[in-house]
User: Which sequence fits this backbone?
């Protein structure tokens, strides 16, 4: 069978060693199994497909107007019926059992199944007429699958990932699912499984497709989106909020009256623009009463005023409705970070709850399709809830359409905004009418699509520049499953990088300020004290030689500034680690040092011994040794530095507690706390005494 897998063959060539009678029996038995499997699945629940039967041609999905139509996938002679049964089982397992999105599974499925039916049917692989023997799926090897993919590319000029991802689904589906259908078991590894991809790169599947397409490949990198400028965001917010706040009643009245009039035209089987004054009088009055709201959109207002005595057509009302919808969506985007698809398809009418403990916080509950999270809570401010309630008020879709975003009237078979580019277009139309440049302060080559995603990047930037917990907040708010993606949003954002650098520099300056003050006043300790004391005296003598008039307070101030500048330079240049250890000391070790750190020497020696690396060889290569801060040696390390700071003050409080404890319990202690207290005092008394001389009297009383 392995040899046959490399060839294109007919049914007769596959069963060449079997006589006609046995061949016929194989076919009859295969079709009996097919029938029994279908009867078995007929008893299974189909709740995620609208409660239909497994054998039905049409399966519903989680989107109104979206279906899987198996009947349309059938070839004219019905010969791909077994293959369609295979795909039915595959999709059932993926959606009903594994809980993947049914609408995502349905995306392009019809074209995909028909295309592969043609290629596989040519060789009778899971294809054939009733009771004819089928060539088993096992003949498809990884190499043969590759050749079929190459052929598919040559046939389907506008091929998408859907044509190939179906094979990833097949390869990852447990073979136990098809144990009763053994001739439908594919034993493959997809050709793109060995292609490596790193974070921020296109997927292995897309790389594989690009290799097949060659120079005509267009999607060769991940689309890059920059954040909106602060000026752009301010303009959008200023224009959007009044629409769903102070003017919400006006717009709700206009659309409500339009909906009644539009439905009246449908009852009369008359086009909306052909309605007479008798039917449009109330709508005309409503428009006149709410002119100030319409005037928020200068272009639509001008069109309305030009009509004089008649009312606008349905296209005008649809544009007005889209502008109002966009106003709310912009605010939702800037405050929640929701994706385009989740706003369109997952955000439902009844989608928020109030925080029981706060009047300022509410929670939006929505499904996040990309990471398959259901009823995911996202904190939202009152302004976002106001935008959602306005969208509810101008939503006139039938009750069975649960989507929060709905069209003013149904177009085709959809009430919801079923394509991402449509929502992007609606949002851009809103900004265009106010001459708001979405590419303001953005590189000319920045992707002009992804309007929603750029709002998401903008929110991440704001969090990144205003919170030290940026990665955690972005991960939680954006429903990421790990820290890689939120860090990807933040580390490549120029504003976030700039703010992080500012915070880093401010930290360096603050630490150098406090350390230099402690050094000049002699209120510091640790293993580095002797070296620093000697260095300070050298600087003091140098200053006196250069400027003999410096005495007293002036000398102290100048000395401190010199020391501060030296410390800042060393920290910035990586000549000093300047990190606080769990024992409260600042580690001043040179990060480029090739000598083993006292806190990590033993660990490094064991590591090198296990790796069979000679210590002298490592030193000859000038290999650097990073400290192990968790194993800080305190004052015994020549790199340690202790001075008055919040951590040292906590140590001081603990020291005083232990002193008081030992003084109070004396020899009557019945647990090992006295040993712990004595150990703490022995460890910290010498360095703390140099920073806080007043503890000497407390120690003498113990």
Assistant:
């Amino acid at each position: 069978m392995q040899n046959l897998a490399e060839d294109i063959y007919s049914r007769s060539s596959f069963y060449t060693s079997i006589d006609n009678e046995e061949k016929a029996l194989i076919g009859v038995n295969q079709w009996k199994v097919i029938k029994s499997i279908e009867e078995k699945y007929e008893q299974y629940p189909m709740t995620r497909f609208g409660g239909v039967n497994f054998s039905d041609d049409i399966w519903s999905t989680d989107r109104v107007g979206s279906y899987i139509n198996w009947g349309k996938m059938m070839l004219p002679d019905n010969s791909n019926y077994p293959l369609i049964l295979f795909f039915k089982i595959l999709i059932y397992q993926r959606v009903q059992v594994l809980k993947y999105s049914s609408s995502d599974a349905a995306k392009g499925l019809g074209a995909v199944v028909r295309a592969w039916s043609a290629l596989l049917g040519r060789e009778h692989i899971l294809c054939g007429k009733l009771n004819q023997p089928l060539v088993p799926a096992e003949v498809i090897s990884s190499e043969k699958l590759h050749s079929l993919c190459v052929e598919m590319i040559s046939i389907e000029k506008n091929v998408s990932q859907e044509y190939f991802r179906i094979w990833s689904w097949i390869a990852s589906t447990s073979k136990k699912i098809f144990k009763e259908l053994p001739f439908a078991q594919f034993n493959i590894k997809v050709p793109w499984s060995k292609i490596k991809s790193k974070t921020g790169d296109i997927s292995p599947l897309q790389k594989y497709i690009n290799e097949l397409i060659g120079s005509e490949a267009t999607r060769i990198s991940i689309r890059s989106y920059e954040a909106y400028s602060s000026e752009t965001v301010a303009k959008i917010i200023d224009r959007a909020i009044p629409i769903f706040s102070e003017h919400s009643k006006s717009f709700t009245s206009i659309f409500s009256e339009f909906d009644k009039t539009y439905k009246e035209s449908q009852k009369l089987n008359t086009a909306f623009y052909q309605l007479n004054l008798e039917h449009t009088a109330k709508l005309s009055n409503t428009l006149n009463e709410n002119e100030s709201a319409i005037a928020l959109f200068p272009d639509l207002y001008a069109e309305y005023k030009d009509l004089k005595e008649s009312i606008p057509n349905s296209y005008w009302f649809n544009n007005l409705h889209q502008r109002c919808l966009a106003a709310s969506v912009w605010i939702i985007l800037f405050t929640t970070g929701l994706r385009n698809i989740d706003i369109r398809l997952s955000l439902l009418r009844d989608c928020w709850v109030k925080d029981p403990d706060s009047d300022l916080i509410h929670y939006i509950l929505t499904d996040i399709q990309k990471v398959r999270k259901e009823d995911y809570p996202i904190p939202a401010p009152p302004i976002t809830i106001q935008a959602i309630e306005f969208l509810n008020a101008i939503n006139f879709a039938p009750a069975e359409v649960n989507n929060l975003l709905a069209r003013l009237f149904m177009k085709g078979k959809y009430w919801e905004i079923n394509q991402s580019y449509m929502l992007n277009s609606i949002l851009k139309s809103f900004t265009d009418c106010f001459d708001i440049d979405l590419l303001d302060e953005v590189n000319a080559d920045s992707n002009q699509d992804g309007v929603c995603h750029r709002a998401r990047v903008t929110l991440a930037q704001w969090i990144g520049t205003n919170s030290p917990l940026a990665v955690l907040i972005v991960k939680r708010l954006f429903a990421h499953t790990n820290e890689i993606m939120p860090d990807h949003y933040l580390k490549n954002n120029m504003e976030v990088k700039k703010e992080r650098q500012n915070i880093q520099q401010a930290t360096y300056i603050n630490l150098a300020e406090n350390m230099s003050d402690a050094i000049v006043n002699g209120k510091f300790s640790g293993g580095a004290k002797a070296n620093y004391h000697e260095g300070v005296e050298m600087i003091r003598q140098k200053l006196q030689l250069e400027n003999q008039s410096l005495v007293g307070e002036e000398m102290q101030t100048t000395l401190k500034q010199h020391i501060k500048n030296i410390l800042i330079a060393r920290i910035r240049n990586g000549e000093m680690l300047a990190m606080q250890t769990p024992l409260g000391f600042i580690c001043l070790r040179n990060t480029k040092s090739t000598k083993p750190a006292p806190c990590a020497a033993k660990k490094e020696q064991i590591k090198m011994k296990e790796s069979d690396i000679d210590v002298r060889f490592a030193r000859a290569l000038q290999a650097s040794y990073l400290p192990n801060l968790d194993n800080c040696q305190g004052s015994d390390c020549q790199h340690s530095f202790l001075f008055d700071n919040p951590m040292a003050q906590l140590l001081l409080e603990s020291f005083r507690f232990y002193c008081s404890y030992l003084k109070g319990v004396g020899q009557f202690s019945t647990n090992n706390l006295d040993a712990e207290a004595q150990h703490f005092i022995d460890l910290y008394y010498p360095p703390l005494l140099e920073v806080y001389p007043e503890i000497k009297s407390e120690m003498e009383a113990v």
